[in-house]
């Protein structure tokens, strides 16, 4: 079996990123590190892949960004932040939406061959696929997914703010809360669910969940129909994103349910429509996620940093009238 860049990194006692930089721009690493990397590569008879050579030569002048989907305001805001910085840096941007296709791994590999580096958002492909790209020397940054060993990561804080949201709902008079979302669709949603459940247990809220097929306004409408068929509504519904919450509130209103008199509703993201709907939500720095990822990727491509970096951006609970205190 042919040796990989991971084998060289392990033998030399350095990171994959350091091996990539040593081969691409030897002048930016120390003499001793360069000696160890070259010795390990010679010993293992390591030859960079064609993709790795293309990246080392920086033929493209373009960055790639990969999304699971491009519908809805969340992804649009991340793209705006990413493109703003990429433009300042003189980089073109190629965008790929995988839409859950079975061939997503092959699609991303092909895109990597046309770019100097990639930003990958969410669970578009497996950790194994990302590690394979990293082993080929592809500069990588992940966004909104658990960190992958040796790969830069940018994410927004979820657990602590979801915990605070549970406390707010209890303070607003709720005794029960339903979490509306689908943790299988997003690592962020998994963390929000965990934080809300932990906070609910801490403050004595009865907590349950309702999983939806789609994380959009239609999913919220379907959830409203289901909840209105139950013997009683919960005191509060904490939605995994604003799109769900907005769809839910519209469908509840059509059924004569008044928010917040009959049920408290919260979202997550703080998209523009949430502000007009007076929706209590959690503000994410969406454009900052994209902008930070673009800067991290440029650092990797330019060889300004050898070790992987993990950045967690803060989020903020924004209280509006959809969770106003209930009268008892």
Largest beta-sheet characterization: 6 strands, parallel
Domains, number: 3
Oligomer: single chain
Number of strands: 12
Helix segment count?
Answer: 13
Structural class: alpha/beta
What's the helical proportion of residues? 40-55%
Radius of gyration: 23 Å
The CATH H-level homologous superfamily of the largest domain:
Response regulator
Plain-language structure description:
With 328 residues, the chain is α/β, with parallel strands linked by helices. It folds into 3 domains: 5-57, Orthogonal Bundle (434 Repressor (Amino-terminal Domain)); 62-156 and 286-313, Rossmann fold, CATH 3.40.50; 159-283 and 317-323, 3-Layer(aba) Sandwich (Rossmann fold), CATH 3.40.50.2300. It is 46% helix and 16% strand. The protein has helices at 5-12, 16-24, 31-44, 50-57, 73-88, 104-112, 127-135, 159-171, 187-203, 217-228, 242-254, 272-276, 286-302; strands at residues 62-67, 92-97, 118-121, 140-143, 152-156, 176-181, 206-211, 236-239, 264-266, 281-283, 310-313, 316-318. It has a 6-stranded parallel β-sheet with strand order 2-1-3-4-5-11, sandwiched between helices. A 4-stranded parallel β-sheet has the order 7-6-8-9. Strand 3, helix 7 and strand 4 (140-143) form a beta-alpha-beta unit. The radius of gyration is 23 Å and the shape is elongated. The N and C termini lie far apart (70 Å). The model has no long low-confidence stretch (mean pLDDT 89). InterPro entries: HTH_LacI (IPR000843), LacI/GalR-like_sensor (IPR046335), Lambda_DNA-bd_dom_sf (IPR010982), Peripla_BP_I (IPR028082). Keywords: DNA-binding, Transcription, Transcription regulation. This is LacI family DNA-binding transcriptional regulator. Residues 3-57 form the HTH lacI-type domain.
């Amino acid at each position: 079996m042919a040796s990989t860049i991971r084998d060289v990194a392990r033998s030399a006692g350095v990171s994959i990123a350091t091996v990539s930089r040593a081969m691409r721009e030897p002048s930016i690493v120390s003499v001793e590190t360069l000696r160890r990397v070259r010795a390990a590569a010679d010993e293992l008879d390591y030859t960079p892949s064609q993709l790795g050579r293309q990246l080392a030569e920086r033929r493209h002048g373009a960055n790639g960004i990969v999304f699971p989907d491009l519908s809805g305001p969340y992804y649009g805001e991340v793209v705006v932040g990413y493109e703003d910085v990429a433009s300042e840096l003189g980089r073109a941007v190629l965008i790929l939406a995988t839409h859950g296709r079975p061939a997503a791994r092959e699609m991303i590999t092909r895109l990597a061959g046309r770019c100097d580096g990639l930003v990958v958002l969410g669970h578009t492909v497996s950790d194994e696929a990302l590690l394979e790209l990293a082993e080929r020397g592809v500069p990588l940054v992940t966004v909104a997914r658990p960190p992958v060993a040796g790969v830069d990561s940018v994410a927004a804080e979820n657990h602590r703010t979801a915990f605070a949201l549970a406390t707010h709902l209890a303070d607003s008079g709720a005794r029960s809360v339903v979490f509306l979302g689908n943790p299988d669709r997003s690592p962020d949603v998994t963390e929000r669910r965990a934080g809300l459940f932990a906070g609910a247990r801490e403050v004595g809220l009865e907590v349950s969940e309702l999983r939806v097929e789609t994380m959009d306004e239609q999913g919220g409408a379907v959830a409203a129909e289901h909840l209105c068929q139950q013997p009683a509504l919960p005191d509060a519904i904490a939605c995994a994103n604003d799109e769900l919450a907005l769809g839910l509130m519209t469908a509840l209103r059509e059924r004569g349910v008044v928010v917040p008199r009959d049920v408290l509703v919260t979202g997550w993201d703080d998209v523009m429509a949430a502000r007009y709907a007076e929706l209590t939500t959690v503000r994410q720095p969406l454009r900052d996620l994209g902008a930070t990822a673009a800067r991290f990727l440029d650092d990797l491509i330019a060889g300004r940093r050898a070790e992987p970096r993990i950045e967690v951006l803060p989020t903020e609970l924004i209280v509006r009238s959809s969770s106003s205190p209930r009268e008892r």
